[in-house]
Amino acid sequence: MVQNTSLVYPLNDGRSIPAIGLGTWQSKPNEVRDAVTYALEHGYRHIDTALNYGNEKEVGEGIRQSGVPREKIWVTTKLDNTWHKRVAEGFQKSLTNLDIDYIDLFLIHFPCSTDPEDSTKHLPDWDFVKTWQEMQKLLDTGKAKSIGVSNFQIRHLEKLLSDPSCKVVPAVNQIELHPSNPSPKLLQFCKSKGIHCTAYSCLGGTSGSPINNSGPLMEEPAIVELAKDKSKTPQQIGLMWGLQRGTSIIPKSVTPSRIDQNFALDGWSLTTEEMDSISAIKSRFKVVQDGWMPIRVFLGDDG
Ligand code: NAP
User: Fold this and answer.
1) 201 alpha carbon to ligand 1 midpoint, in Å?
2) Within its chain, how far is the Cα of 107 from the centroid?
3) What digits encode the pLDDT tens for the residues 238-278?
4) Is 25 near ligand 1, meaning CB less than 6 Å away?
5) What is the value of pTM for the model shown?
6) CA distance 200 to 151
7) Is the CB–ligand 1 distance for residue 288 below 6 Å?
């Protein structure tokens, strides 16, 4: 019997990340508090947020409101681009916002060190390699239990890992992964370096934000047919595909019935043929673009 709701993936630092988490990007502060509480009351043990989402305070309130002990919950948050030169301060800001004593996983949100004075400029004297030097120091405080990166492509990871200052291999790379952005080379590269991948926008991100250009992934015939055959929803099929690729998944919802549905992943699985039929989907799109940043981060599907 497959028990995905209690599944954890081992990380390279000896810790284990719960396979299913709740995403919170674009969850408004007033809705996210209750969404986090609901998710934790219904079995979720992993919450993903970021300083950039502007909702850490309410995420923290949702955690406390749930009554689930802090030590049973995995909290991921991320260093915003304008804080790359002030890692310790950025980290402390997230701790204060969330009002918790430690962060389970602290990520560099993007490999882009934006000038805090002018968000159209990249800092001339700073890049993510220097940011990582500061991230590594957080481990000594005991308040960041694991550290990692997000939106890093192969060339970013090659640069980081080959730098002599890199003593700690990122535990996680959180990247956009769904059937229309499967990034097999990046996934394989991370695996070869012992870096676990968390899949974001794993449902194809249908929030309709100005930077969301997703197509109707959940209407893809391969997904719809499988959903009918297996009496599941298309979203559940998409999430199971992500889990069975060995990635953790962090579907976002503020809707209780969907929060439940996205966690109803026990006791069934996809066969190899079913996995292959989803992997054969040809449409391609990315939910998260890099046009709003001062430098290009994404150079093609697997660059
Ligand atoms: P997503 O999880 O792929 O999709 C979220 C959208 O799907 C919401 O509109 C949600 O609506 C809807 N939805 C959720 N479950 C559903 C279901 N069962 N049936 C129908 N619709 C459903 O998109 P995402 O927010 O882009 O990605 C997930 C999380 O990944 C984020 O929230 C964030 O935590 C993380 N993320 C990280 C980065 C990064 O740069 N590291 C970038 C993007 C995302 P309702 O909420 O209205 O129910």
Assistant:
1) 5
2) 9
3) 999 999 999 999 999 999 999 999 999 999 999 999 999 99
4) yes
5) 0.97
6) 10
7) yes
21 Cβ below 6 A of ligand 1: no
7-11, 205-209, 212-216, range with the lowest pLDDT: 212-216
Task: Assess whether 53 carries a catalytic annotation.
Answer: yes
Question: Across the strands, what pairs with 9?
Answer: 17
Atom of ligand 1 nearest to the CA of 212: 26
Q: Domain tally for the chain?
A: 1
- Domain that includes residue 253, residue range: 4-214+246-264
- CATH code of the domain in which 260 resides: 3.20.20.100
List, for residues 58-74, the tens digit of each pLDDT value. 999 999 999 999 999 99
Give first-to-last CA distance, the chain, whole Å: 38
CA of 72 to the centre of ligand 1 (A): 23
How far is residue 30's CA from residue 86's CA, in Å, rounded to a whole number? Answer: 29
Q: How far is the CA of 254 from the centre of ligand 1 (A)?
A: 9
